[in-house]
Structure formats: structure tokens, C-alpha cells
Amino acid sequence: xxxxxxxxxxxxxxxxxxxxxxxxxxxxxxxxxxxxxxxxxxxxxxxxxxxxxxxxxxxxxxxxxxxxxxxxxxxxxxxxxxxxxxxxxxxxxxxxxxxxxxxxxxxxxxxxxxxxxxxxxxxxxxxxxxxxxxxxxxxxxxxxxxxxxxxxxxxxxxxxxxxxxxxxxxxxxxxxxxxxxxxxxxxxxxxxxxxxxxxx
Length: 200
Known about the structure:
Elements: H1 56-64, H2 82-100, H3 104-115, E1 119-126, E2 129-136, H4 139-158, H5 165-177, H6 184-198
Antiparallel strand pairs: 1-2
């Protein structure tokens, strides 16, 4: 008797098992484990480097839930509403597939690879003088920055705009996956690397 192997699909639609991560520096920190609804209930909290094992879709959802601290554009609207944000990301993935015909999770991975900065600056105090020095960015922080840039771009493009957050997220991922300068996240990455290059 031949048994057919069942494959667990993300949101019962998208296969994440055959997605190849092209950036070798990010292979160990992008989790694409099979899951229907990617939610870990915060089991990784307070454990060093454990967020590398959290599904990349859940990490995107967590970044989109960021409540903001400073500006009206990113303050107070989505903090803690995880179920709502999971539905938002699910709808955005459907829109990406409708527009491109490709696996939207794979396009998200390409967007993260294109938006993840390789260099940053840090402050060094030497003899009472502060110097800004260029440093390499750790792989886990590269993912965090890329997801933050994507979430910021979505938040800014929907502020005082009739465009829905699902449409903004789909557009941001599509443009970032093609390394387009229309993408907020790609622009932020290039700006950060330019500043770091001038601090070498």
C-alpha cells in the first residue's frame, strides 16, 4: 500500500519547503519550518538567539504589530493585535500571488535579502572624542532591520491614505523583491550602507 506524503502548507496554500535562500549569510537565521499558522506564543522570549527559530512570517507579523514610541505615523494602532495582523499578512500574500503568479513567501525572502543591510555604524569614544566607525552587521540583526524597514514602509504609505495595509504590504514586498528603488526598505538599506561607507 502506497501512502501519499502530506505536506503542511502555510495558510493551507503556500509551500515553504522548496524555497531556496540565496544569501548564504542568512540561511541559518531564516526559519521556514512547515506550519499552517505560524505562531509560537512567545516561547523564544528571554532565550538568546532563539528568535532565529521563529517562522519568518511570524517575525514579520511581530514587526507589523510594533506600537511605536515617537511619531504619530507609527503610534498605537496595531500593538498586540496579532490575530488581525496574521489575517492582514495572509491577505497580502494572496494579493502578491494574484499580481505576480509566484509563491509570495519566496518573494518575501527575496525582499528580505534585498533589504538586509551588510554594514552599519557604531560609536567609539577614544580620548574623549566620539568617532563613528563602520561595522559588519550580524545575520540575525540583518533580518531584524530588513523586517523593520518593510514594516516602516507599510506604516508610512498607509498613513493618511485610503490604501489598505494589505495593499501597501503587497506592494512593498513586490518592489523590494525586485530591488526597486520605489521600495522604502531598499532605500533605507542603501542609505544606511552609504553612511557606513563614509565612516570607514
